[in-house]
Amino acid sequence: MSSPPVTALPAAVGSFGATDALAWVAIGAFVLALALQWQAHEDAARYLAAGAWVVFGVFWLTMVPYYYGEAQSPIQTMLSLAALPLCAYTGYLLYRGRTSLFVLTKAVAFMGIIYLPVETIPFARTWLIETTAAQTHYGMELLGHSPGLNEGANGYESRFDFDPDETVTGRTTYIVLACTGIGSMAIFGGLIAAVKAPLRRKATAFALAIGVIWFLNLIRNVFIGLASPFGWFQYDPLIYITTTYMGSPADRTSFLVAHNFVAQSLSIVALVGITYLVIRILPEVVEPLEEALFVLTGTEYDLADALGKPDPAGEQLTPPSDD
Prior knowledge:
mainly alpha, two-stranded antiparallel ribbon, about 0% strand, disordered C terminus
């Protein structure tokens, strides 16, 4: 979600450009590497996947100027900066022979297959943004606010048309692709698709994850969409922080606090909670998660043992024994 008046979104997120090309190259290379592995060409698969991870890290590095300058998001800026060394290290581990990382590679490939078409195909992007905006507007109406929708700075019917003379800050917001929840949905879709498990449990886990993400994202959008115009966080200490350290106009403080600090921090908590719920249904997803933790910490983890081991049928996790 963005808060006008601002400039149009950069090419990195608004149209097909160098950044989108990097993403497609990385995901395409991941898919090809997995195909080579399936054909038992292990060495070629490892080398190609290793290079793809480096390209994927460069892709995230190109997003830093947007997250730092346009989005003014400390959390996303730091994550994008950390992505390149982490991705490069993942590629190095694959190159050196840690083939267990192919399951994480597969998960990221499926994430890209889910996300990139929505990012780069205009019809899909338009439908998702405008549908999310309409649903968010309906949520506002349930709380007694009906501003209407008009065209936002991104060219979609996704701007909440609050009267600036009737609000505290005179500002409003509009929905962008990141506000649709598609990124989080792609993460869980990729994790679920990457593991081997009965289709019934995979479908159940997917439906749960998507449903919870959609509901929480709707609450998030309504919260930010109301906090910005009505100035819920227009307090002097917060205004000082956003104007002094972020170079933002004072009247944008409520948007930045609601979006970049409150909502993004709670989103991390929500993702952890959704992950736990998915694991209860589909314990197999601990495999790519364990590989991700190894890349982050250099330590082997047994999440299944920590959270409770699957029963012999693999249908559910049971509490760990005290013995």
